[in-house]
Amino acid sequence: MLEVINLKSRVGDTEILRGLSLSVNAGEVHAIMGPNGSGKSTLAQVIAGNDDYVVTGGEVIYKGNNLLDLKPEERAREGIFLGFQYPVEIPGVNNAYLLKAAVNAKRKHQGLGEVDAFEFLKLAREKMAVLGMDPKFLNRGVNEGFSGGEKKRNEILQMAMLEPSLAILDETDSGLDIDALKAVAEGVNKLRHPDRAIVLVTHYQRMLDYVEPDFVHVLSEGKIVRSGDKTLALELEEKGYEWVREAANG
Amino acid sequence: MKQAVLSIDGLRQAVQSLPDDALTAAREAALASIGTQGLPTVRHEDWKYTDLSSAIDISNRWLADGANTESAATPADTVKSIMASIDANWLVIANGIVDLTHFVESSGIKIERFSDSAAPLVMERPLADLNVALLRDGLRIQIHAETEKPLGVLIVDETSAAATVSQANVEIEVAAGCNAEIVEYQSSSGGGDHYGNSVVVLKIGQAANASYVRIQDRRIGHVHTGRISVTLGADSQLHMAGYDLGGGLVRNDVDIDLSEPGAAATVNGLYLAGDGQHIDNHTRVDHRVGPASSSQEYRGILNGRCRCVWNGKAIVHKGADGTDARQTNHNLLLSDKAEIDTKPQLEIYADDVKCSHGTTVGQLDEAALFYLRTRGLDRRQATQILTHAFAADLVSRTPVTATRDAITALVESRLAELITDNVS
Ligand SMILES: Nc1ncnc2c1ncn2[C@@H]1O[C@H](COP(=O)(O)OP(=O)(O)OP(=O)(O)O)[C@@H](O)[C@H]1O
Ligand SMILES: [Mg+2]
Question: Which of A177, A225, B275, B404 is 20 to 30 A from B307 via CA?
Fold first, then answer.
């Protein structure tokens, strides 16, 4: 599904990704961990198409095509979804309106007609119930005045409506209370499917208790320095990142 | 470019060719006033950014061509579609000619023609004087009881000749204690050059409440100047909003006079400008006594080679203690060829006043644009959504509810024209 090969990227003059490689197959769940500032969000933003991050080397292949040639909206329509670490507030743009426009943009790309307004609302309400979101959030501005946890749930709502092939969730578990974490994990588990892949960027084992990863990677200074199965996350929890760094350097 | 000068001889001939009626003396007085003052030039502080040459040039060509005021027929289709879009009781001024045929007699409203009764005020303001000098007829309206529908004033021009000029002049009095809703709609069509000049005088009685919506949707390229002068009685309220969508050279002057205590005026505006447009909004609020409040909020969206001007002046005169005056102007510039001159101006000669102003000029929020694009919306669609959100607040707060759907549709379609695929 996704093949990241020796990816290098900078923002301004600062090199952030320094030869990162990662391979994600359909049906898999990958967790990416790593210290603050190591480049996790940068990787997520580059995959989503944020041109603040300049790709200076390497390749990203998605479903067999060069992903870096596509505009952000084309990537989204091809099934890539990024759950932002810091979802953007867009005052005055109705949440339901965006949700519907996003669903329709994808449907149009697939050669389908616009979603039926009634069906759309019904589906949105169902998904919101799973996420423990009050339906009134549909009528608010996109993330406008949402609490941290509400923003994260809203990201998952969008993901649930768009049913992406590849979901990259950048610290969607940060700032969630226990109930919200369970609800978000349930939302993510519902998306698990042999045709889909999920990449979870996280700092906490707790999320991985609910959404069991097939692979865990440690990103440090712009590179993946260690990969393993779910036990790697437990080991990290115990020994901290210093341990991986030492192992990587030594 | 050298500034054009209005042909006073041509003007005199045109004034003298108008019928002899109750307006005659006012026309002569207005003509004399222009003869001595002339029209404003860019050397006048208030006209620094707005050169009236194109208005003067069209006027001179029209005057030279015989100043025909009765050329084109009423643009029936335009009138019909506008009336269908807003449910109001409509008075029509088509090509400068008063047409009362669409108006349904209402017990709350009394209407007189200037030509039958007394003439309008000569204000000694150049464009208002030009208006009165060339005025075929105008209306004096008294609203003395609340009516079921808003009162609509449709100023519509259809041009066929190379250059035409038209005047509209309406005086509206809202009786003490009365609630009134008024819609002024300006529209023009046709291939020729056109200059439309309007004057509205609004007198709001004691404890009355007037809501006034102005929609200017003239043909892109047509010249429009308009003045609205409002006086507020004690404890009265004005809720005004203007929407400028069309026109080429556009200048709006809104003057608010707060001479009695307890009055509150809200004056809002939205302007959308694209290639070749120049939209200038000048407001002036005179706080002569306190307590009284005024609030102005203008927003603009500019794309392409265009220029907009916002000058919001509030003068708090000596003794007007207890004044609360606020003004804001926010602009979204979508092109580096778009220009905005924004100037809030507070002159305070009283002691106990609360005044504030704020202006912003900015581009679209790139983070918001990117976020929308990661949800599958292309740049154009994302831009339209964000610009629409920027305008939506002023649209939804239109003080005359009956206009909301029409304004929403007008703003949406104008934004769709303005936001093209090549937005930067
Ligand atoms: N727009 C930017 N301008 C300047 N520096 C940036 C920018 N974006 C990221 N960086 C820098 O790049 C480095 C990696 O940032 P990134 O956000 O990818 O880290 P992260 O691994 O997601 O960290 P965290 O765990 O704190 O979310 C950091 O040092 C950060 O300061
Ligand atoms: Mg991050």
Answer: B404
Of A71, A92, A98, the CB nearest to B375: A98
> Does position B157 have pLDDT exceeding 80, yes or no?
yes
Q: A2-249: which CATH architecture?
A: 3-Layer(aba) Sandwich (3.40)
Compute the average pLDDT of residues A180-199.
93
A183: enclosing H helix or E strand = helix A178-191
Going from the Cα of A40 to the center of ligand 1, the distance in angstroms, rounded, reads 8
Extents of the domains making up chain A:
2-249
How many independent structural domains does chain B possess?
1
Which residues surround ligand 1 with Cβ inside 6 Å?
A: A 11-12, 14, 16, 34, 36-42, 52, 85
Distance between CA atoms of B251 and B218, rounded to whole angstroms? 12
**Chain A contacts of B376, Cβ < 8 Å?**
73, 76-77, 101-102, 105-106, 109, 162
| Residues B303-334: b if buried by 16+ CB within 10 A, e if exposed | bbebbbbbbbbbbbbeebebbbbbbbbbbbbb
Facing residues of B99 across strands?
Answer: B92
In a domain, B121, yes or no: yes
Q: Do B377 and A102 touch (CB under 8 A)?
A: yes
pLDDT for A93 beyond 70: yes
The pLDDT assigned to B72 comes to 60
Residue B404 lies in a domain: no
Q: Is the pLDDT of residue B387 over 60?
A: yes
Lowest mean pLDDT among A36-45, B61-70, B260-269: B61-70
Please indicate, yes or no, if residue B370 is contained in any of the structural domains. Answer: no
Query: What are B299's strand-pairing partners?
Result: B270, B330
For B75-93, how does the pLDDT look when each residue is reduced to its tens digit (9 = 90+)? Answer: 889 999 999 999 999 999 9
Contacts of A65 (CB under 8 A, 6+ apart): none
pTM value is: 0.89
Of B368, B376, B381, the CB nearest to A76: B376
pLDDT above 50: residue B424:
no
The partner residue sitting opposite B368, judged by closest CB among A81, A90, A97, is A90
A106 contacts on B by Cβ (under 8 Å): 376
Query: What is the C-alpha to C-alpha distance for residues A195 and B40, in angstroms, rounded to an integer?
Result: 71
Looking at the domain assignment, is residue B214 inside a domain? Answer: yes
Whether the per-residue pLDDT at A237 is higher than 90: the answer is no
* Local structure of B390: helix, strand or coil: helix
What ipTM is given for this predicted complex?
Answer: 0.96
Gap from CA of A224 to ligand 2 centroid (Å)? 15
Domain that holds residue B21: 8-364
Q: What is the pLDDT of residues B130-155, one digit of tens each?
A: 999 999 999 999 999 999 999 999 99
